[in-house]
């Protein structure tokens, strides 16, 4: 069920990042305790990816419906964020700074990290590098062009959502790599979904909601 817009709060934030200020948006629900807080990493900065990407936006709004506080941010050099694209090295540091800001704001919440495409690569590496992360949500991870080897030994719960018609991150390549990742893990396929889930955003949202409804209520699987 969608949350009425009059009880949603969208708060612009500025986060101190390693290359300068990072532009961010915090989404919360008035009156909600928010026992879970999630950081979302956007797709490739050098290919037009921003925190306003439609898949990132739908991911954020679906998590908010489940009672999760959501922090989105722009990597260095995107939007109002300072700095320049750093091929995933500096972007991981940006994500670490944003995760620190999320932790400071919600010190008692369970913390999730999510990412779409390039952002899922950053999220996976952040999950391997930082303590205090309970769950990873990876959407269309680019296993053909980036290494996800850290997930082969990372025992964090991993939820992966993938379109069956994704030509950028093909499902068959993901399935081969996913088989090597450590448990616990779950792969959810969105039938007919392309990389950007064109005309499939509702199906993507439904799949995400169904996969997370129990964990968001209190489970950990």
Describe the structure.
The protein is α/β, with parallel strands linked by helices. The protein has a single domain (5-217), classed as Alpha/Beta hydrolase fold, catalytic domain (Rossmann fold, 3-Layer(aba) Sandwich). The protein contains five helices and eight strands, in the order βββαβαβαββαβα. An eight-stranded mixed beta sheet has the order 1-2-4-3-5-6-7-8, with helices on both faces. The longest helix has 17 residues, at 89-105. It is globular and about 40 Å long.
Order of strands across the widest beta sheet?
A: 1-2-4-3-5-6-7-8
In the CATH hierarchy, the architecture is 3-Layer(aba) Sandwich
Shape: globular
The number of distinct structural domains comes to 1
Look at the structure and give the mean pLDDT. 94
- Tell me the helix content: 25-40%
How many strand elements?
A: 8
Q: Structural class of the secondary elements? A: alpha/beta
What key phrases describe this protein's structure?
single chain; 221 residues; alpha/beta; Rossmann fold; eight-stranded mixed sheet; 25% strand
In short:
The protein is α/β, with parallel strands linked by helices and 221 residues long. The chain has 5 helices and 8 strands; from the N terminus they run βββαβαβαββαβα.
What's the helix and strand layout?
Blueprint lengths: L7 E10 L2 E10 L6 E6 L12 H12 L2 E6 L15 H17 L4 E7 L1 H12 L5 E5 L18 E6 L7 H8 L6 E6 L10 H17 L4
Helix pairs in contact: 1-5, 2-3
